[in-house]
Design a protein that fits this description.
- This protein has about 120 residues and is α+β, with helices and mostly antiparallel strands.
- It is about 30% helix and about 15% strand.
- It has three helices and four strands.
Length: about 120
C-alpha cells in the first residue's frame, strides 16, 4: 500500500517479486480522490482465499450498495475481519460451524453499520 498526494494505491501481483523493487502501471482514470473524513470505501471479502481489502466507492460494480466507510474505519474493520478469518479463539462460545459463522458475521459486518460485538451478541 502506498500513498501519493491525495490518492492511495495498492500493487497486487499473483507472481513472486523482488521485495526491493516494485513496478506498476495505472491508467489516470483509475485514480480517485482521497481524504480522511469522507466515507469513500467499501470492503470486499474473499472467503475462500481468506482475504479482505477495501475498495474506493468509484470501483463498486455490484447491484446492492455496500456500506461506505472512511479510510480509518475501513482499516479498523479490515483488521477485525482478518482476525475472524485467521483465528478460531473468538468462536469457542458458538455452536455453529466456524466457516458458516465466519460468513454470517463478516457479511453482516460489511453490509451494515452494526459493531462486531453487537453482531456476535445477536448470534448467541
Amino acid at each position: 500500500m502506498g500513498r501519493a498526494a491525495k490518492c492511495k494505491w495498492r500493487l497486487q501481483s499473483s507472481q513472486e517479486y523482488d521485495k526491493r523493487l516494485r513496478l506498476g502501471y495505472a491508467n489516470w482514470m483509475a485514480f480517485h480522490d482521497d481524504n480522511s473524513s469522507e466515507k469513500l470505501y467499501f470492503i470486499e471479502v474473499d472467503f475462500e482465499a481468506k482475504t479482505a481489502a477495501y475498495q474506493h466507492k468509484n470501483n463498486f460494480q455490484g447491484t446492492e450498495l455496500p456500506v461506505f466507510r472512511s479510510a480509518s474505519d475501513a482499516s479498523k474493520m479490515i483488521k477485525q475481519i482478518r482476525n475472524l478469518l485467521h483465528s478460531e479463539n473468538w468462536a469457542k462460545h458458538f455452536e455453529t460451524g466456524i466457516d458458516d459463522l465466519r460468513k454470517v458475521i463478516i457479511t453482516e459486518l460489511i453490509s451494515t453499520s452494526k459493531t462486531l460485538q453487537k453482531i456476535k451478541s445477536e448470534l448467541l
